[in-house]
Amino acid sequence: MVESKALRSLFKRLNHRSSGHN
Questions:
Q1: How far apart are CA 1 and CA 5, in angstroms?
Q2: What three-state secondary structure class fits 8?
Q3: Three-state DSSP class for residue 22
């Protein structure tokens, strides 16, 4: 289930970027 971890990391990074942009 390494893909899940990678996907989660990507989502976290996207969330952080969205929060900063907003």
A1: 7
A2: helix
A3: coil
Q: pTM of this prediction?
A: 0.41
Q: What is the pLDDT of residues 1-22, one digit of tens each?
A: 788 999 999 989 888 777 766 5
Tokens standing for residue 20 = 């900063």
- Token digits of residue 7: 């996907």
Cα–Cα distance for residue pair 12/9, rounded to 1 Å: 5
Residue 17 CA to residue 3 CA, distance in Å, equals: 21
Residue in the block written with tokens 């989660």 = 8
Say which DSSP state 12 is in: H
